[in-house]
Amino acid sequence: MTSSRSFLGIPVEGDITAGSTRVEQKPIEKLQPILQAVLDDPTIVEFGWQQYTPYFNDGDPCEFSVHGLWVRTTADADVEDEYELEMRGHRSLGKVTAEWAENPESGRREKTGETYEGPDRGRYDRCRALETAVEGGAFEHVLLDAFGDHAHVTVRRDGIEVEFYAHD
User: Fold this and answer.
1) What global pTM score does this model have?
2) Is the dihedral of CA 93, 149, 143, 162 positive or negative?
3) Which residue, 7, 82, 145, 150, could crosslink 70 as a Cys pair with Cβ 3.0–4.6 Å?
4) Helix (H, G, I), strand (E, B) or coil at 81
């Protein structure tokens, strides 16, 4: 795409190839209240995620990101596989199901509402907000600086444990 931009007052012409579509980064202070809201819930035992830069990405650039937020509640003491504790369909946090209907004017299906199934919508929403914050990309620099690359992070009230995360 041809540009009529300037750089420090100097005209720039030519084809400008867009760079990374990375999310704008936020400071750690913005993450703290989201994290604290989950830590303050007495039924949350621990939570965590994996963060890493892939070794190979089918020719695309390999970029650091965070994946798989999981939450263990007091009701999940017997669950060993953290994959079962990820937010989608979490057995003790519940789930939200979107409701859709066709819009006669546009002819498209549109979201018309949602239904929550579970014990505590507030708890679910706080955990979902944490998932969005951690996996959404806005805190990648903060998380990379704090816990490093190729890390499995487990957060508890009394401390944070970081282990090397081996991935494909």
Assistant:
1) 0.81
2) positive
3) 82
4) coil
